[in-house]
Amino acid sequence: MSTTAPTTRTATTKPLTVVRRTAWLLNALFWSAFAVLEAVNHGWLAGLLSVVFFIAPDLTFLVGAGEAKGLRKGQLQPRAVPFYNTAHRALIPLALIVAYLWQPIDWAPLFAGFCGWLAHISYDRAFGYGLRTKEGFQRA
Description:
Layout: H1 9-42, H2 44-55, H3 81-87, H4 91-102, H5 108-126
Helix pairs in contact: 1-2, 1-5, 2-5, 4-5
C-alpha cells in the first residue's frame, strides 16, 4: 500500500484549462467575425438575426424566474436546466450550419444567426460557463 499523498487534479488540469479556454475564445472570435461579415455583406437583417441568436440562449434564464426564491447564488431554476443546456450545446448550431451549407437554403440572415449562436456558446466556454447540473449549478 502506497503512503504517498494523492495528486491534486487542479495542478495537472490548469494548463489544459487555459489551452481549452483559449481555443474557445479563438473560436468565439472567429464566429463573431463571421457573423459581422455576413451582416456587412447581406444587410441589416443578417446583423439583427446574429444579435438575436447571440442573445437568445440566455433567455432560458427566464424559465421559472418567478420561482427563484430559495435558490442559492449562481443556481439556475432546475426547471430551466433542460432548456439552458439545450440552448448551450455547441453541436446544435454547428450541425445547423453544416445542414445549411448542404441544403438548398439560400437565406444569409439565418446563417448569420447560427454564427451568432455559436459565438455566444464559445464565449461562455471561454469565460468558464458551461452546462448545468440538474440542480441548476455550473458543472465542474
